[in-house]
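To assess whether ligand presence alters the predicted conformation, the chain was also submitted together with adenosine-5'-triphosphate. Input:
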Amino acid sequence: MVARVSGLTVAAGDRRLAGPVDLAVADGERVGLVGASGSGKSLLVAALLDELPAGLTTTGSVQVAGRAGAVFQDGATALDPLARVGAQLTGPLRRLRGLSRAAAREHAAGVLDRLGLPPGTLRAWPATLSGGQRQRVALALALAGDPRLLVADEPTTALDTVGQAAVLDLLDALAPALVLVSHDLAVVARLCTRVLVLEDGVVVEEGRPADLLADPRHPLTRDLVAAARAGELA
Ligand SMILES: Nc1ncnc2c1ncn2[C@@H]1O[C@H](COP(=O)(O)OP(=O)(O)OP(=O)(O)O)[C@@H](O)[C@H]1O
């Protein structure tokens, strides 16, 4: 198991914000988390990354084997606007993998190539990249630490349809294990093998995407299926 969340609750003082939630992610698995705004998706992601905001209290346990890498909605937030892409990628490659400067640069060029970015990207400043390119660089950065788990929170929400499909395919190709968060069931259905539907911080339905799409049981899942189908028609 790459990650195991058991009986996790997150609270702000007396107010329960999320949970209790159980979640287990196996090696190679792609798990989707869907739910409306405020359903607790981001808190669960923060708990997996051990980055819950100070002041919140938790019960239960979160275990992640090895490192977890993260990709968020806006790749720009992960990038330093004042450093070229190459320097940002080689830093963690040298620090976390112990590579020499030259080896780190070669590795970074290889990763960018796999992400469909030209070698010149190493010398580029983040501001000169498109949203889709920045998201790919953010993915390269998340992978630099050789994570056992990749957590992607609305990674394609800011992209157009073509960009969305490309980034989702890359996540699927490169993530060792993946927790993919979206408000859009169609997005997680594209690559996840298992989907958890969250409402008010708890899992109200769980299943294979094809089953949820064909036979949603919970009213929220039905709404998400209707929204996914409407999106397909648009
Ligand atoms: N640091 C915090 N302090 C107090 N309440 C918080 C904090 N962070 C989140 N919340 C509350 O916890 C609940 C779950 O928030 P969370 O951000 O996890 O939802 P979400 O499903 O990710 O929503 P969205 O899709 O809008 O990002 C919300 O009611 C939110 O207002």
